[in-house]
Every structure is written in C-alpha cells, then in structure tokens.
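Human: I would love a firmer grasp of how sequence relates to backbone shape in proteins. Could you go through the record with me and say what the backbone is doing? Here is the record:
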Amino acid sequence: MSLRARLLAAVALVLLVALGAASVATYSIVSTSLMNRVDAMLRTSRTGFELAVSHGQTIDCARGPRFPPPSVRHVPFVGGPGRPGTFLATQFVELRTPSGEVVKRQECPAYVGTHPYRPLLPPAASIRAAVASTSGTSSFLTVAGQTAGAPPFRVSITRLASGDLLIQGIAIADTQNTLHDLLAAEFLVSAIALFCAVIAGWFLVRVGLRPLRAVSRTAALTSSGSLDLRVAVVNPGTEIGQLGRAFNGMLDQIQGAIAERDASDQQLRRFVADASHELRTPIAAISAYAELFERAADEDPDDLERVLGGIRDEAARMESLVEDLLALARLDEGIVGARRPVELVRLCAASIDEARTLAPEWPTTLMASRPLEVLGDEHQLHRVVGNLLANVRQHTRAGTSTTVTVQSLGNEAIVGVHDDGEGMSAEDARYAFERFWRGDPSRSRLHGGSGLGLSIVRSIVASHGGSVTLESREGVGTTVQVRLVLSTHAALPAIPNGSTESSQSLLM
C-alpha cells in the first residue's frame, strides 16, 4: 500500500472512530433526556393515584381517580374526564398485591389513538425484585407491548405504604421513533462527513506529498547517473524539507566520493604508468649491459669494469625507486612509525653531515637558536630533511649554497631548506610535490632522481599532522618549509651564543 493510501486510511479510521463516538454520545444523551421526560410524566401522575389508593378510592378508567368534593375531604382533585386521547387515557394503570394479583380489578389500558394497549409486564417475582433493588420506592422499566403491533412502554412500579404495587405505563412509540430518526440522521451525516473528509484528505495529502514525489523523481534520475540534480527545499522546517536537505547532502557526499574515486583512480593509473616507465629504463640498461657481457665484454678488463659498473648503477637506481614506491605505498595506507619525541636541530645537523659527506660541492649551513622537539618517527623525519637536501643536489649546480633553518612560531616548529640555485618556474613550483613530475628538461633521469622525493616529503609530513610549502623564483632560488606541531617536551634550554657552528657542535 502506498504512503498516500495509508495516510488516507489512517485519517478515515480516526474520523470514523470520532464520528462513531460522537454519535453514540449524542444518541445516549438524547435517549436519556427523552426517557427522563417520560419518567417525570409518570411521577407527576403517580401522586394522584397514590392519594386515591391511600383514601380507599378506586381508579376509574374513564375518569381517573375519583375523589369527593374538596370541601368535604380536602383531597386534591386529580382528574377530569379520562376520555381516550387525554393525558390519563394514554397511561396504563394497574394496582397489584405483593403476590401479583390485581386489586379490585383496578387496571386501565393505555390508549394510543382509540386503541387500548397493555405492556408486557415481567413476572411478579421479577417485579418485586426490581422494586427491592432500588433505593427509593419506584423502579422504571422499558418493556414491549402485550400484543402484536403494540408500542413499547415505559413502566413505573411503585411500592405503596400498604405494600401494594402501583404500576403505571406510558407508550413510548413516539420516543422510539424519534430515537430511530436520530440514529438514521447520525448515520447519514457521518457517512457524508466521512466521504467529504476522505476527498479533502486525498487532495491535501496529494498536495502535501508533492515535495516527496520530487525527491522520488530526483532519486530515480540520480540512480541513472545524473548526480548534478538537487531537490528544491521550499520549507526546510518540515519533515519533507528536512528529508530534502538530507537527500541533497547525501548527493553532495556521493558526488564528492565519486569525484574523489575517479581522481584517485586516475592518479593510480598515472602512478602505475609512471612507475612502469621509470622501472623500464634501468631494466633496459641492465639488459643492454648483460647483452654486452654476453658478447665477450669480459675479455677486455675495461669493458668488463664498465659493464659491471653500469649494472650496479642501474640496479642501485632501481632499488632506490622501489624503496621510494614502497615508502609511498605504506604512507598511503596510513602505516606510520612509533611516535617519540624527536629533537629537530640534532636531526637536521645529522642530515647535513651526511649531505656534506656525500657531496661536499654543495655547502650547507644550519641556523637554529634553540632545540625544538616534536612527536614523530625519527627515521621518517630524517628522511624528510635528507630528501630536501638531495633534491637540492639533484637540481642545482655544484657550488650552490643551502641554508637549513629550525625555528618555532606559536605551537609549530618550522624547518626551512633554502638554496640560491636557479629556481623554478611558477608551473614547476605548482606541481613540485606531484609524483614523477618533471617540468624542466634538466630534471631528467640522467641526473638521477625519480620524481618521488618531494612526494615522499609531503606524505611523511602529512602523516605527522603537519604541512609543507614550496616557494621558488627563477634566478633567486627555492625555499621549502616544513611545519610540525611542537611536542609537550619542547621547553628545553636555549643554545648559547646562537651561532651555527656552536649549535652544530653542541648537538652532535
């Protein structure tokens, strides 16, 4: 069943229950009111009959109770002529003994029109029980007529002081007809009200669910690939408005995730292609050297040395590339080393010593005023500084000066590596951290380097919760800054004199 049908069914059910309860309450109130009026009529006429019986008078069906003149006995005069159609003639009156026998034939039928009727009274024992169960002296019953076609009666049974039972009855055919008319009117009005409410509810539900149908259409179009569609949220405070906002947010996340996946897939394909291209060169070189060796290069010592040296160089290059790829793969998977306090000035000094040993042609200077500690993997952070220094050696001429600075700013430690080399163009600087990026022809495989050094730097720094930036101008030089969060152990004593040489000698 659709949501619209369920809502309409719920509205119809609630309205039906409400109309039914209102009808039952109305019928009960009207029925009680009409019966109370009939009971009041019986009580009003009962006084005269009680007085007549208590004074030994008999009930005349034609005239009602007969009394002597008021001047003689001072008994209230009750009735005039009791012809059929008068108030007394419409009542059934009967006087019985406690055993159920009619006293002196005092029994008068009730006239409806010109036809006399009598109520179908219960057995004497039931009558006595009914009177005995009441707190007063009278009990009221509703019984059927004694003969076929007789109207129903409202009967009053009163226990007199003498012990006799005075039974009165009034035909309530008009009352019953009124109640039947009321019941029919309630049914008709309830049916019309229910029909109109269902029609109005169908229209209102259709209008109210129109935004939901818009969400459904958008979802259907989205499932076919149209991720740019969004639901128009007219009233964000309603439930459907909240659904529309949530649906739009979900589409934004899905579209972003798909775009990110596509970018990641494209980057992965480019990465695999670049890695394959990078590995092809050393493999081809090793194959060429092996072919030279097979052509009797081992007979000439010079050729043999050249072949073996070339194989070693290409194997070392391939090993370095594989290690870089493995490092990037581990960083991409979120594999990080143990986090321990690392003192950056000592780490930079050790990296500079290694660089001076490998390539003394590139002079390097360390500038630091005091030790700074960060939480991280010392081996990975050492590789960050080593890669930055190696990047200078690979892409600048011999003799280029390099300055490594370690300083703090707020809660961050900043490690800067500046060289006064040729610098890079804005395009090269923009893509410097991309994997296998080579914008300058001088940055080729012939000069070493696989284009992964700065990518590894960025990945390591990101895994430590830091950031790295690069600024370069052609003819001025290049500056790379690594920002890391200081650890809680950063409050160390300042280095005396503040000079580069003293700092380096103190920390090494």
In short: The chain has three domains: 3-180, 239-327, 338-507. Residues 64-86, 441-448, 489-508 have pLDDT under 50 and may be disordered. The radius of gyration is 56 Å.
